[in-house]
Amino acid sequence: MALALAVAAAVSPAAVHAQSADAIVDKLVQKGILTVDEAQELKAEADKDFKSAYSLKSGMPDWVSSFKINGDFRGRYDAMFQNGNNYGPKAAPDANTFANADRNQIRYRLRLGVTATLADHFEVGFRLGSGQVGSTLGPLGTGGGIYSQNQTLGNDGTAKYIFIDAAYAKWTPNEHVMLQFGKFDNLLWFTDAVIDPDYQPEGGQERVSYRIGEKHEIGATAAQWVIGENFASNHTSASGSVNNDVYVFLNQIDLKSQWSKKISTRVALGNYAFKNQYAINPDLEKVIGKSVNGTPAVNVPGSLIGAQHFNPIIGRGEFTYLLDSFPLFEGEFPVTLGAEYFVNPGANDIAFTGKNYGGRGNEGYNLGLVIGSSKKKHNWQLSYNYKTIETAAGWRGFVDDDFGFNGLGGTDVRGHLVRGSYRIVESMTVGFAFFHTEQISNPVGTQAKQDRIFVDLLWSF
User: Fold this and answer.
1) What pLDDT digit, counting tens, does each position of 308-367 carry?
2) Half-sphere exposure of 194 toward its Cβ, with a 13 Å CA cutoff?
3) Does pTM surpass 0.90?
4) Would you tell me which CATH number, out of the four given (1.20.1070.10, 2.40.160.10, 3.30.470.20, 3.50.50.60), belongs to the domain 63-460?
5) Which of 47, 52, 248, 410 is 20 to 30 A from 404, alpha carbon to alpha carbon?
C-alpha cells in the first residue's frame, strides 16, 4: 500500500491527483496486488491528503472541494434584410417604425462564470455577461436584454455594460435528484419555438430521474419562475386588483432510451401555466416589441378583449442513429430527426379581425434534422428546421427573438432555419445561421418577410 501511494503521488500532479491516483489503485486491484478493501482505504487516505493540500494552497475553506472558472467570447455579424413589400408602421405604440429597413450589426458576447462545489452535495455559481440595457420597467427597474448577452458595436467607442447572467445555488443529494434556486440555465427540454435558449429564468427548478433497466431513464422536471413582482404597481389586472405578482409554473416528463449502441431516442410531454398573467406590467411589452398578453391587440386593463390565456401543452421527440463513419468527419457520425408540437387550449375563440384567417391560431410545430456534431476538433454539424408558431400558440415573452419579421421575434411567424458549425481547434468554433421567415396573419393585401444571417466566431475556455 505504501508503494502504491508513493507511485501515485510521484506520477500525479496536484490538479489531477484524484483521477490518476484512483486509476493506478484500480490497476493494482486488477493485478491482485491490492484487495478491494485495501484499495478503498487507500483512496480515502489519498483523497483526504489531497483535500488538505488543496485547502492550504488555495486558501479556500475545507468544505470547498473545487473552484472552476469558465466562459466564452463570441464575435458575430448579424444582418437583417426585409422584403421590399413589407407593410409599414402601424398605429400601435409597440409598432416597429422601420418595417422595411435592412440592418447590419457587428456584435459580441462575453460570458465569465465561476462554480464552487461544496460539501454536503451543494454547488454555488454565478456568471457575468455582456449585454445592452433593456427598458425601464417602472418599479421593476432597469436591466439588460431579456434574450441574449449580445452587445452591438458602435456609439463612438463608449464603455459597455456587464450584467449578472446567472446566480444560483444547487443541491444534488444523489444522481437522481436536483434542486436549484436563483437565476439559472433552463432545465426543461423544449426547443426554441417554445422557449428561447438564451432566456435565463429566475425562481426555482427541480428534477428527479430513475433508471428502468439498462436501456431507459425516466425523468420529471418542474420549474417555478418569477415573471413580475408588482408591489406598488400603477396598473390593474383584468380582474381589477393590484399588486398581483406574476409567476409561471412549468412541468415536463421525459423518457431517454438507448435501444442499442447505434440507436437512441428521447420523448417528452410538458406544459406551462401562469398565475396572474394579466398583471404583467405593460412596460414589459415594449421590451419584447409586441403585446405579450395577445396579438393583435394590446391587453386592456379590466378587459379580456384581444388578450389570450397561455397554458400550452408541448410534446417533443428525437430519434438518433450513429453511423460508423462519414466523409470529412472523425469518429461516429450522429443523425438526429426531431419534432415538437404544441397547442394552447387557453386561447380565446375571438377571430383575429382584419387577418387572413379566423379562429384561435393556437398551434405550433418545429420539425428538424441534425447531422454531425462540432463538439470535437475538426468535426462539423449542420441542421435544418421548419417552424410554425401561430399567434396564440405560446407566450411570446418566451419565444426565440431571432426567428421573426420586421426585426422582431415571437409568435405569428413561420419559416426556415439552417445552421452550421465547424470546430477549428479545441477552443475555437466557426458557425453560421440563415433564417427565412414571414408573418402568418398579415393584414389583407400585405406581407411581412425577412431574411437574417449570422456569422459567428466562438472561443471557449
Assistant:
1) 788 999 999 999 999 999 999 999 999 999 999 999 988 865 444 334 444 568 899 999
2) 27
3) no
4) 2.40.160.10
5) 248
